[in-house]
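FIELD: query
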Amino acid sequence: MAGRLEGKVALITGSDSGIGQATAEAFATEGADVVVSYLVDALGADRTRAAIEDAGRRALVVQCDVSDETQVEAMFDQAVQAFGTVDILMNNAGVDASGTKIAELTTEVWDKAIRTNLYGYFFCCRRFAQIRTSAGGGGKVINISSVHEDVPNAGGADYDCSKGAIRMLTRTLALELAPLKVNVNSLAPGMVLTPFNQAAIDDPKLLEEQVQSIPWRRAAEPSEIARLAVFLASSEADYVTSATYVMDGGLMHNLGQGA
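FIELD: result
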């Protein structure tokens, strides 16, 4: 039985761990060949490659700093050379909040978040749009955002602002690519058990404390995000565009309690 992504080529940035790795494996299981992009975790990227190949699909591993326009262009060049095209783009590479309040936030730290989380998505979206335009249309873009595109976090201005901008990048690109039948959507997770939350993963007591604001009293597993990504990448979501899917166990709707 053919998978929902049979014959497609997906490029996932930051696919060496967490959400990216889980999605790469899920895409391969559904029939897609996958370009694995990573920054520093070569071993993680190799594990992802092995999982893709174990699912019977082809994998291409590319080291890429998405904040660097030249490296992004080279990554797409390698993907097109290897597979002929790219049908699905999932922007996932990013840096977490610095934990620094605005009064003490250096320009260097601010720039790192904006260059990686926003410019990186822009560079990838721009090249993907060019590829799909040349191919005559069709394709899927999934931008991994965060509940912090809406909900501020003290000490997280660098991250929050980048994620808020991703929301508008997603919506604008969705309008621009609608005539080509390219779907552009975003996923906005709450707390997910990825390296961003390694301290909580390693300390059950800390994890228990952190999930108290989540109505479901737990964090998400990366595989849960991946399953929704598969839907958005498939033909089942052909009429879904310019949408944000929040997966947060009810966190955002719980914030006003006790006010």
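FIELD: remark
The longest helix spans residues 107-134.
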